[in-house]
Amino acid sequence: MRLVLTGMACAFLSILAPRWLPDAGPLLAAFGAGGILLILVGVGALFVPGTDHTGEPLVIQPPVQGRWLALNSPATKVPSHGVRAYGQAYAVDLVFEPQESERPQFGSGPGMRRPTDFPAFGEPVLSPVPGTVVRVQDSARDHRSRSRLWAVGYMMIEGMLRELGGVRNIVGNHVVIDAGDGCFALVAHLQRGSAQVGAGDQVEAGQALGRCGNSGNSSEPHVHVQLMDRANPSTAQGLPMTFTGIAIGDGQPTTGMPANGEYMTVS
């Protein structure tokens, strides 16, 4: 994405600069052509096929408890989020929808709701694996939701600007855990100031890491979890995963991954 943004900047500069540099036509034309090339290469890199790790999914514990709706699930498609950037080919988003509380629906009410309007906000987020904490980000603010089409459009533009600031601006507050054997777990979009662990800490699966927030490139409070082959999401590839001890829909506890729009319950 940074290639795309750099290319756009070069292209715009080649269009605007002749006002101030009227004698630099050929140079600016080459500058603009280079910008278009960067845009094409950057977009192509986002959708390049055949770069996913394959093999049996790694079994991990769900990072939440209660009743959660799965969105952008690898059980439905890979890459689950449409792109492979930031090691998220097999990532899943989990939205809290308890039976006793109603979650604000997309398209109803204000386009930018307070994060406290959503039942997920402040819910405990647990470690999906045992291991060593290697990265903690805890200072990004929790912004309002993007709950209407115009707000999603705003989020897309905002996301391009976040790309300039690197991975922390995309995943927001997050924790990365080294589970060993070349496997790293990331949980993202945590609530500001909620981290309960620090780099170097040893954690067990199911141990509290923080609370669900709405930091980073997020449309509403939710938990994003993924496995990857290195600690830095900027250069990582995703690893397939599946949850243990979950009930999908009205089923019995099992090992699996809910598809898009399916509920999983963790007791």
From TrEMBL:
GO molecular-function terms, A-Z: metalloendopeptidase activity
CDD domains (UniProt xref): M23_peptidase
Domain M23ase beta-sheet core residue range list: 122-232
Keyword Zinc-finger attributed: no
Key words, A-Z: Membrane, Transmembrane, Transmembrane helix
Keyword Transmembrane: yes
Protein name stated in the entry: Peptidoglycan DD-metalloendopeptidase family protein
